[in-house]
Amino acid sequence: MRLDHQRHHSEDEVVDVVVVGTGAGGAPLLATLARRGLSVVALEAGANTDPEQYTPDEVEAPGDINWMDERISGGSTPTAFGPNNSGTGVGGSTLHWGAFTPRPNQHDIRLRTDSGQGEDWPIDHAELTRWIEQAEHDVGVAGPAHYPWDPERRYRMGPPPRNASSDMMIRGAAAVGITATDAPVGLTTEDRHQEHHGLRQACVSCGSCHQGCRNGAKVSMDTTYLPAAVAFGAEIRAEAFVHGIELDARGRVEAVVYRQDGRDHRQRCRTLVLAAGGIETPRLLLHTGIANSSGQVGRNFTAHGATQVWATFDESMRSYRGYPSSIITEDFVRPTDADFAGGYLIQSLGVQPLTLATSLVRGGGLRGAALVRALQDYPRMAGVGINAECLPYDDNRLVLADEVDANGVPKARVTFSPGSNEEAITRHAVRTMTAIVEAAGGTDVRVLDRTAHTVGTARMGTDAGNSVVDAAGRSWDVPNLWVVDNSVFPSSLIANPALTIMALSLRTADRLIRDDASADREQAATAVA
Amino acid sequence: MPTTVFCLHALGSSSEEFVGLRSRLAGTLDLVGIDLPGFGTSTAATGTTVEEMVVLVERAIGRSGATDWALIGHSMGGKVASVVASRTVDGSNGLFGLRAVVLLAASPLSPEPMDEERRQTMLDWASDGEIGPDEADAFVDANTASRLDPEPHAIAVHDVERAVPQAWTDWLVRGSREDWSTVFPPNPVPALVLAGAEDGDLGPEAQRTLNLPHWTAGEFDAVPDAAHLLPWEQPDAVADRIRDFWHRRVDHGPLVPAETARVIASPRVSARTRGILAVRALPDAPDREPRALTREQLDTLRAVARVVVPQPGDRHLDLALRVDDQLADELGDGWRPDGLPTDVEAYRAGLDALRSEAAQGDEHLAGVLDAVTAGEYTPTTGPLDGSQLRAWLEDASVDLAKQWMAHPATMAAVDYDGFANGGDGLRKQGFLLLGAGEREAWEPTGAGR
């Protein structure tokens, strides 16, 4: 995005707010604060990219927009990082995200009340929905005229065209009595003039959302909130890796230290907001040793169950064409026959070839002639996949490894093992998905296990003893330190996280400006009561 | 069908100079000469600068419809060939399918070393508006180790005489002096750099120091009893070297089908993506020393690759060598399994642990790999335990499978053309027809599956 005309702040200036990260957590807040006249500087570890130069090539694209610095992944089911779930660059993970934008429903944020497991969110659902609607309005979200599971809901743009996988899921779901329709998606399906950015072209069904959108159709922060932020005076510093946080004698943040162009810089600030995502936010907090009196930083790492079921069809499907996940069903948000807490969403799937090859090896365990045959079946394959609740577990956690990265900061080591609840959801979902693809005429059904997203690790709550931040995103320990990204999620939700992160970002910006901790905490206590 | 080789001649020459090579290489390669502007039968009207020559050549290649081609560049034509090759592998000229380059006593991308007195003499020849017969004769003799036979001599002299003085002068005054050496990065296309053992300013030393370093997959040889006019002087020796180079270094590995190559060359593909695919389509170097692994480890990885990704057909990629490159360039996937050392260390340890198993044949190795994945195998040597070996094997299998899928010939084989979803225009093309069984007019007809 254009940064050449942006306002510049000196490092000696005490800016009102420094925001670490420019993705879905940082960008909406940055725009809100700038619009309200605060002096704000965003520090982004990744580069400022030119969308025109993105490539659909799956080998090269990750180097542009994914976080490729090494992380260490353990546990019984190590979650894959890199292109699977981790972004970088001005715009953060919204550069590579899939733009699937279901809303969190009221069951999701009342998980503990409903099921006795997991955690409740300390936020009222109606209030969260208002922020969601604001975010949808700001960035442009497309969806069906009638949303079966929430008839009041309206989308301003029609859905993107369906591809062969979409038609397959609609057909299969109908045959087994499941309601399915066009999914809410963060795409502009018609030419849209985005305030302070310019023209975002209508989606052309190129299919390369995960490799970076070249024409501005997909919602990403560098074509929406960030240009607005810059227009109102925010400064974005790219390739600026934050590794230090300095506190004054009263225990308040007074500056951040970051590496840029091979040397350390120090930016003074009145308030610090961490929006670096579910891995980098806790890593920074653990590295600097602050805001962790609860001992909760890094704990409760959750990754959505994202198991896929693929089948082979008689016809050529070539589901790499078109928006990859255009169909949704919310029929399994809380299945009546559930033997688990939570539920799952199902979406249709398009896939690029290297991603499929990776899944066939890792999740499908294929090798040799069976692997080659499966890859040769690629053009006739179509599938469906889930986004499933994952309960927070204390010992699924992120810690600092013994080895350091190029900046001398310890690498993140993440341990993740799904529990019996996750396994029960997956069993149920595989049954459902298998029924759909078989009813649609698919044979040679393949189940590919995988997980997606990085959630938890700095959770919000109403008790300073077992959460890192309060319901507004304010640190319990350091009064001028805030966190807003997927790390604050107390439970994973079954909705894909980015839209909710944007909503929380708008909400935290509102609370930060109001600056009334006791009011925020009273409101949260009411919400969970 | 033999690969088309576009041949770019020297100053004062024409496509006539490749007649001998053409007949000698027929059946292996199909040589097609292009007369550069102002030489042979080409008019100078299209412009005689290096860039204008490059564009003329690129248009000729594009018009030919070739999807599988190589370049030969002699002297002045070598500089033009080098620029065309660079603009092909970076995707910018809209061509695809370049497999190799042969340079004959080539003028380098940097300013050509040329004795100033000789330059002035040649300029003087053209200053009166025509190059006379004596001057042409002197030029040919000065550039050959011994006098050519009468017939080739007469043709070579005739080519000099019919050169348009402006083209001749433009090269001597400007083209030969232009420095293109910093415009492009080193070129990975397999290149054969030949020198005439008795050439002067562009002899073996100049070829080794000025041309060879530009070609990261280049090899050098000197042709005995030849000065500068290699194709005229030693057509047998030159043809033999090209034929050997072609069979040994270039003509193996999968070929990108013509339909797919045409799509990659089309405006539906961005220059960047075209360049990425151009480099990836280049043939592996069969004898290349590994960069990250040892010879033994590479051979073990080749055995693992045969078991994990048994490639169909008889033209295979060297997947192990490609993974070795990936390791040497430290191109990881953003994470590694807990308990494993760094990627390259894990590869070395895993391959050492499997070396003796691989030595017992692929069938035996396949059983071992199954046991590793099942958690039923305990390595007898090295630092990895069974579970570490299993984690590494999964990583390595992903790497090998991705290397195979990423090749444009494999993409064509699995009916994938999703790279052709947007060029560099103001609007991206994307896809209009998305349904099952639907296919757009531009799409390859598919693998018939």
Task: Give keywords.
heterodimer, A: 529 residues, alpha/beta, seven-stranded mixed beta sheet, six-stranded antiparallel beta sheet, 12 helices, 25% helix, B: 449 residues, six-stranded parallel beta sheet, 7 strands
Write structural notes for this entry:
The complex is a heterodimer of chains A (529) and B (449). Chain A is an alpha/beta fold and 529 residues long. Helices cover 25% and strands 20% of the residues of chain A. Chain A has 12 helices and 20 strands. In chain A, helix 1 (27-35) runs parallel beside helix 6, helix 4 packs across helix 11 and helix 5 (164-175) packs across helix 10 (420-439). The longest helix of chain A is centred in the C-terminal third of the chain and has 20 residues, at 420-439. The model of chain B has no long low-confidence stretch (mean pLDDT 97). In chain B, helix 1 (19-25) links the parallel strand 1 and strand 2. Chain B contains 18 helices and 7 strands. Chain B has helices at 19-25, 50-64, 76-89, 116-126, 133-142, 150-161, 165-173, 204-211, 230-233, 235-250, 258-265, 271-280, 295-308, 319-328, 343-358, 362-373, 386-405, 408-413, and strands spanning 3-8, 29-34, 69-74, 98-104, 191-196, 218-223, 335-337. In chain B, strands 2-1-3-4-5-6 form a 6-stranded parallel beta sheet, with helices on both faces. At the A-B interface, strand 3, helix 5, helix 8 and helix 9 of A face helix 12, strand 7, helix 16 and helix 17 of B.
